[in-house]
Amino acid sequence: MNQSTLLSVVVPLFNEESNIAALQTRLQQIEQQLSPVKLEIIFVDDCSQDKTASLISDLCHRHDNLRLIRFAKNSGSHAAIMAGVAASSGDCVMFLAGDLQDPPEIIPEMMEKWRNGNSIVWAVRAAVIGRKRQDSFFSSLYWLLVHYLTDLPIPAQGVDFFLIDRLVADVITPRHHANLPYFYLVAETGFKTATVSYTKANRAGGKSGWTLKKKLALVLQTLLSSPTALRAFSAAGIALLAVSVVAIIYFIIVHCILGTAISRMLLAFCGLFFCTGLQMTMLGLIAEHLFVLLKEVRHAPRYVVAERVNFDATVLDHRTERKTSTAGSVAGSS
């Protein structure tokens, strides 16, 4: 392996002050195992309300391979991953959650998959320690939805984090996406993939910021990014229209023969309300889709950076070094 190999690890953070010390210690231990591979660790603080940003800033001043990006407002973990990948310099890039549920000890195995020629390495949970049954159910349901609606090459069990080659990162970074989930952007590039399995641990400390509201927002973003979902709603509307026409004809015939229309009128009103509700749901999805398109056209920023630490000119730009080396190789072979 090339001795100058650099792995960029992006760590989204939101109120994780109690986990930072343990996370840093475990990442340092992993770096020793990976030697001669070096780590560039990019912490992205999603506008935390505790001491997360100040603790990371202190660490950055003591370790020149640590970086900090702090958002001006809370923008979500996917935006944090996007910002970290865009600022990374490594030959490959990955992200880890700051709550230590995703074990850094799986990094060597993911690096091995990358060295074997896989541009995307998905980390798939084989088991979850101490997770509530309803959380596991809804997580499985979501990834099943993704699997059948998006036609993306994503493991059916779902993914929690991933490692991508520099080429993948460079393809994704210039593209503007206001709302798409980040795993969607990675998967649709179509590069060669591999998977590793791991056991997801309990949260080491603090309280999760992954609220029900954010989970529902991710489901909606996934639906809006899937043409299959929109077509399914259109097909449902056509089918419902056909059923309504048949029902109306049936009620007219029954009314003319039996002369009793009270119960059937109630059913008709129920059907009307159902149709109206479905139409409003479909119109709402279309409106959401148009709103996302408007944000894309306006190039609305997905995140706003308030502060960057340890990105000064004294830090070695590994990306520039790699490009220079590649250019030299090409010139020598010509």
Order of helices and strands: EHEHEHEHEHEHHEHHHEH
Return the average pLDDT rounded to an integer: 76
| Top CATH class of the largest domain | Alpha Beta
CATH fold-level label of the largest domain: Spore Coat Polysaccharide Biosynthesis Protein SpsA, Chain A
3D shape: elongated
Total count of strands: 8
Separation, N- and C-terminal Cα atoms: 24 Å
CATH-defined superfamily of the largest domain: Spore Coat Polysaccharide Biosynthesis Protein SpsA, Chain A
Strand order of the largest sheet: 7-5-6-4-1-2-3-8
Percentage of residues in DSSP E strands: 15-25%
Proportion of residues in helical segments: 40-55%
Radius of gyration: 25 Å
The domain count comes to 2
* Major sheet summary line: 8 strands, mixed
Give an account of the 3D structure:
This protein is an alpha/beta fold and 334 residues long. It has two domains: 6-209 and 301-322, Spore Coat Polysaccharide Biosynthesis Protein SpsA, Chain A, CATH 3.90.550.10; 227-297. It is 52% helix and 16% strand. Helix 9 packs antiparallel against helix 10. The longest helix is centred in the last third of the chain and has 36 residues, at 262-297.
